[in-house]
Design goal:
Blueprint lengths: L3 E4 L1 H9 L2 H16 L6 E3 L6 E6 L2 E8 L4 E9 L8
Parallel strand pairs: 1-5
Antiparallel strand pairs: 2-3, 3-4, 4-5
Length: 87
């Protein structure tokens, strides 16, 4: 069974800011998450329930997973810098 991907408003805004050369790679990873979100460099965020980050070079995809509904909600797509993990 494939997973459904939902992008929040802020994730859609983040995607518009991604340079074209990186967009193709990030889009391919998001599409691969529909098949299985458990592969790749994925790590659970400390202090969060069902929230993860996926590393793609200098980019990070922050998402949550609802395993009962097979739903992935992408909250942010950010370029890695000193402020990436601060709230």
């Amino acid at each position: 069974m494939s997973w459904r991907i939902n992008l929040t408003r802020s994730a859609k805004k983040d995607m518009r800011k991604v340079p074209k050369k990186d967009f193709k790679h990030i889009h391919a990873v998001v599409e691969s998450m529909k098949v299985t979100p458990f592969i790749g460099d994925r790590q659970k965020l400390s202090g969060q329930v069902n929230e993860y980050r996926r590393r793609i070079g200098n980019w990070r995809i922050f998402f949550s997973m609802d395993t009962s509904r097979h739903m992935i909600t992408i909250m942010h797509i950010r370029r890695r810098n000193s402020k990436t993990y601060s709230k």
